[in-house]
Amino acid sequence: MELTGFPPVADMRAKILILGTFPGEESLRHKEYYAHPRNLFWDMMEYVCGAGRDKDYNARLTILKKKRIALWDVLKSCSRQGSVDTCIRNGRFNDFNTFLSRYPVKAVFFNGKTAERLFRQHVVIPKLMPSPHLFVLPSTSPANARMAKDEKVRRWCEVKLYL
User: Fold this and answer.
1) Which helix (H) or strand (E) holds 60?
2) What is the predicted pLDDT for the residue at 95?
3) Which residue among 39, 94, 97, 144 is the active-site one?
4) What is the pTM of this model?
5) 94 is catalytic
6) How far apart are CA 93 and CA 119, in angstroms?
7) CA–CA separation, 96 and 41 (whole Å)
8) In this predicted model, which residue has the larger pLDDT, 18 or 91?
9) Strands ordered across the beta sheet of 16-20
10) In 68-161, which residue ranges form alpha helices assigned H by DSSP?
């Protein structure tokens, strides 16, 4: 069965883009980015810009926009059993040409290596846009338990340098 992801969370001032691969089952069920309670994304956003999970979902999105942070996924749709990126099949990519031509993004942060790999393999950055800085951050997925949370926080706080 083909699954469809979410539209971007962004406003016209977005200068940072955080990209995941594709929403997990829990996120799709709740229609919210990073809805799985063990995913650390919103914990990282608390440290980066104050958009922690103690706030209502819409309030978190408002904070991201106010801080000029856009949120999206590399894939627009795919087939997948479960939530693990390695199970993704038949991925279709979001329209980054239009997005990156429209928004003044200066830095792209990937939530994990799979998002970065897919983006680099399949996305051509529009020529009219200045070349953005691309950074891979540790995945916030519960499947990525190799790195301690405090080390993830340290790495994710690098986003602050671009706020």
Assistant:
1) helix 57-66
2) 94
3) 39
4) 0.93
5) no
6) 9
7) 22
8) 18
9) 69-73, 16-20, 107-111, 133-137
10) 96-102, 113-122, 149-156
Return the closest-CA partner of residue 99 out of 6, 32, 17, 4.
17
Question: Residue 21 corresponds to which tokens in the numbers above?
Answer: 């691969």
Q: Residue 91: phi, psi to the nearest 5?
A: -70, 135
Taking residue 35's Cβ as centre, other Cβ atoms within 10 Å add up to 19
- The pLDDT value recorded for residue 26 is 94
Q: Given pLDDT bands bounded at 50, 70 and 90, which one contains residue 123? A: confident
Query: What does the alpha-carbon distance between residue 8 and residue 104 come to, in Å, rounded to a whole number?
Result: 14
CA 33 to chain CA centroid, Å, is 8
- Please check whether residue 11 is in contact with residue 65, taking contact to mean a CB–CB distance below 8 angstroms: yes
How far is 116 from 133, CA to CA, in rounded Å? Answer: 12
What are the backbone angles phi and psi of residue 122, rounded to the nearest 5°? -125, -10
Give me the residue label for tokens 């993704």: 88
Tell me the residue type at 110.
F
What pLDDT is recorded for position 128?
55
For the chain, the average pLDDT equals 91
Segment 60-65 long-range contacts (CB within 8 Å, at least 24 positions apart):
61/9, 64/9, 65/9, 65/10, 65/11, 65/13, 65/14
